[in-house]
Amino acid sequence: MERQAAFSRISIDSDKQQQLLLDSLSRTQYIVEQSQKAIQENSKLLDNYYGEGNLDGILSMYDNDIELLEPQTPTCRGIDALRLYYETMKKLRLLPQERCVTELHALSPFIVLERGKYKIQKSKKLFTEGR
């Protein structure tokens, strides 16, 4: 009986519940849109760093606890492993020359997946393109 009385004191009418839900969805949508905008801006910045071969700039785009998952490559855990990865890629001339983000998918307000196309120059005349 006590439990019902306590619960009924917090009762919210259905109009207010709907408004709270709509407000929450609106805030979530705003967070997703801002995240997507930040990703697009940072992607352009990353493109510039790739073009310049600026390893410090490239690494500044990642958290210290980064885990890079690249196809046919061992997982790079941590910023030091990532530095080694990019130094090796630069020596091999395998840094992307061109990136084009074609899709952004919000998996949650805090996780957004970026997809696109890339072009890597392997020699003066040989390029590799992929998605």
Automatic annotation (TrEMBL):
<dbReference type="InterPro" id="IPR032710">
    <property type="entry name" value="NTF2-like_dom_sf"/>
</dbReference>
<protein>
    <submittedName>
        <fullName>Uncharacterized protein</fullName>
    </submittedName>
</protein>
